Prior knowledge:
The protein is α+β, with helices and mostly antiparallel strands. The chain has one domain (3-133). The protein is 17% helix and 34% strand. It is built from 3 helices and 10 strands, in the order E-E-H-E-H-E-E-E-E-E-E-E-H. A hairpin with a 6-residue loop joins strand 7 (76-84) and strand 8 (91-98).
Amino acid sequence: MAQESGKKGIYKMTPEEAAAAANEFKQLPHLAADFFPFTPAGFGTVTGLTFFCTACEGPMPPEYVRLRHNQFPDNVNEIRAIGVCKDCRCLTRFMFRFREDGHMESLVGHQWRRFKLNEKPSGWKRVLRWLLPFGAAP
């Protein structure tokens, strides 16, 4: 089970989870640098995502993030990704869902956060950094 770090809502992986994530990372089919832009059904074009390390909070270049894209019924597009921080070498998992109604959901810690893009999400500055490529403004 993941362990809570000193920061609220941020969990670091156990050694077993990190080993599983490293194996999964090798099997993910796309580099984030090569995947974007993509256009989910009923959604605008997503030109990219900005990924941040949960350990050191540093940015992860898209060349260090691998992902899998799935499309589900009702035009739900999901991106599952794992990134390797080039500074501290920690692994971080990411999950995003893009819905036909223009909402994006992101798994933060163990909770889903829902955002209407191009609206100001108050109180979630860390997640806001992930949304800036989509045109959300503080």
